[in-house]
Amino acid sequence: MSYDVVIIGSGPGGYVAAIRCAQVGLKTAIVEKYSSLGGTCLNVGCIPSKALLDSSEHYHNAAHTFKTHGIELKDLKVDLGQMIKRKGDVVKQTVDGINFLMKKNKIDVYTGMGSFVNKNKIKVTAADGKTQEIETKNVIIATGSKPISIPPVPIDKKRIITSTEALNLTEVPKHLIVIGGGVIGLELGSVYSRLGAKVTVVEFLDTLIPAMDRGLGRELQKVLSKQGFEFLFKHKVVGAETKGKEVTVKAENAEGQVVEIKGDYVLVAIGRKAYTEGLNLEAVGVKVDERGRVDVNDHLETSVPGIYAIGDVVKGAMLAHKAEEEGTFVAERLVGQKPHVNYNLIPGVVYTWPEVAAVGYTEEQLKEAGRAYKVGSFPFKASGRARASMDLDGFVKVLADKTTDEILGVHMIGPRAADMIAEAVVAMEFRASAEDVSRMSHAHPTFTESMREACLAATDNRPIHM
Asked: 411 an active-site residue?
């Protein structure tokens, strides 16, 4: 078979690239190593983790807030097996949807490990060892990433686990030790904390979610502490040992002392790295950088013309929606269109509760660049909608240019922040000022009024409800 484009990897970047390629008239095939389409995100990442987060939040509310709402319950208990089953059902429905979209768009799907024979020929090796070769004019590498491990903490996938195993535990941990204070560790830590686990986060740096605005990290730490999390900052993990059902983690604190933390499960969540194993990149001369990511130019083309790479396998934020944007970008460039991706306006989200979301520049970045800015902030405790739903933690912070009032960054922690951030992205794509947003009518009572109030505060310090 011969194609205009072959995509290796079927995660959000890969399958979106395939659909857009088909939409613009390119004969398209997609190669997936596993039997299930959707990549990490749909199978063992974004979708299943959100399913468990939602289930655990329902339980947490039933246990802690229903009584205040006037709802009495007796004999409340966790059926973890049912939670895991529901999560699996959500994954299956989503994956089935991707299968349907492949058929709808007449995209050929090959199951097996894709590797380069040369720049125009891909070998597909099935699980049983059988191989076939397909010809193509262009290739898009979309093989994603995998969890990073550290030598002192050998992952056994039983007691010392990654996010993949954390999605399928058969019991609620008594004490879950999370190594890493980033998005993945805090989200999965939240799942089990809500279900009754003690959670201790061991973080090498001095803040949570270090890639985001420092104010968000401080507020999230305060909220999660109220929920029962414990935090050990400036601690370097130097070892972990399993004995039966107990795991002991050793960490060196800022004073150089070694402390021991004992638990029954350890989740290693220190980040992810580009996954290019088995692609045989050397056969075609595709270059990778010092961190193993595929080198690409501004058009996402590798060192070999006609071979492109997108998503987690290239530099930038490891986000599903970033990969989708890049997949669309490459597809459209292949037919001569002029797409663009504004990397500064790709939002980041943490799906704890309250949720955390941000887009644009942080205060730290603006200070480092020497750019004059002003700040407007509004707390959710001053929001009528938030009081009605008992979601009083958090705030919306808007950063605007001191002279022009153009919105430069929006950072929020609070209820439905993951959805609310879209308003900020739209405003910033059209280079709106804080005053522009403050003069737009926002339905009352809604959480999004807090965005308007923060913009009012940034414009000339005139929030209405604070």
From this structure: no
